[in-house]
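call fold(seq) -> tokens
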Amino acid sequence: MGLGGYSMSGKKSLLWAYILWLFGGIFGLHHFYLRRDRHAFVWWTTLGGFGIGWLSEVFRLPRYVKDVNEDPQQMKEVIKRIHHNKKPPFSMNRFTGMLMVGYSWGQMMMSAVPPDNFWGINLRYLNYLIPLVTALGVWTVGNIGREQGSLKWPLLAAYASYPIRFYIYDETVWFTLMVLATALTFDSFSKEWRRTPKRRNLPTRIAILGLCAVLYLSMWCSYLYFYGTITDSEGDEVPIYEALYHFFTSPWWLDVRQCLLDTYQYAQHHGWYEVWKQIIDLSDPHGEQNAYKVLGLGPTATQQEITSTWRKLSRENHPDKVKDPVQRSAAQEKFMEIQQAYEILSNSKHRRNRRNKKDNSEPTPNKE
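ret:
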């Protein structure tokens, strides 16, 4: 098998698989390249299987590449295993992965449930989604590669064991028992061989992974919003939801919002191009506003006034008048600043004069 050619639709390259594993492996980039989307999503949510899984794949990548390329020798071994085993044999690596991912996702769901009413709505009923998310974690790991299984049995096991929490108050114990029951049920009743891998097109794969990523990130956002805190300048911890509320009611934000609203209304009447022109002018790309400030003049000053002021300030701030070496250095900087300001304003005046002469010299169209 060759090592060249990066192609999402043709044969996959072992070289590219190792490169993606090295530089983006903890996010599952190499698995996405090898069309192992479930594996990629698991790696993304657990940062490479908590780092351990990512390291252990250094010796498995050749097998993954052969499998996706349907290498004849690899296919013979797969067919041989299917003939000798009615269902996939027990794998400690996969079973451990089901436990870890199911536990991780379930804990994330439990942490995302708001502790109090939100906008007058009691959201604690979302705790009943914890078994569902736990079962999804077990099911996702169980459906990686050449193995697959139904979600029905692990889901039933998760909900059947969930009431243990009302009898065992230690969260770690009852949660572990629920995940263990879910993984054992999947391994015993759902697991089977995947004889024909599904081939989805790239947009479909990205859409599915994007939706899963949004759902997972929403749990993180909920956890940070309701349980996260920030530390102020005095060392006090403030809940994030309180900090956000005070931020959006602060005078600074209200001024910014009003400024954005005024900008939008101005754009509706004059167009976004005019808004862009004003932004460019306010950013002072030529340094004219600062130059006027240095010379103490306004934008309506004539070239004669600019020259007169420049000469006066140059004489007053000339470094030769200062004998102290320390003060002379400051005077030198002030003097150079005055010269630069005069040069900027003079160039700007000349540039405008040339533009005006050009506009006046253009012939006007005859009106019929």
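Residues 319 and 332 are 5 Å apart (CA to CA).
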